[in-house]
What we know:
mainly beta
Amino acid sequence: MAAAWALSALPASAQIGDSNAPVDITADSAEVINSQCLAIWSGSAEALQGQTRLRAERIKVYSQRRGGACGPTQRIEAEGQVFYVTPTQTARGDAAVYDQGADTIVITGNVIIVQGRNVARGDRLTIRVSTRQATMESNARGRGAGNRVRGVFYPGAGGGLGIAQ
């Protein structure tokens, strides 16, 4: 249940937010390696699209090679205090990876999802983009073990547990 609710805090496509809006990326430095179809944004990197924001210490964007040129986005990696923020939800972790070929978004390391007063926590959140199916996992096992997957939900608060469309 917590994983299904948490899914709505993440993008449903390769875009950062509204796919019709431009993506505005800022950072302390940027490096483009055309031979690898790779752009690296480092130092308090932030990508904005519409009302959606992705912040991390470093954002790497890998594009598909098409002929002799770089084409559409294939993979996005965010590292170091990752925050994905929409008008209604916030997801936080140590790292995040969007993999277009695998059809997944994975957030790892101290994952916290917040919607209103509702909060879910775990070590790893995996989302299948096309089906919007999500799984929250923890490395801790067994009753009484610390840092197990945990959710605290307030009925009727912060949009409930529904999936945002």
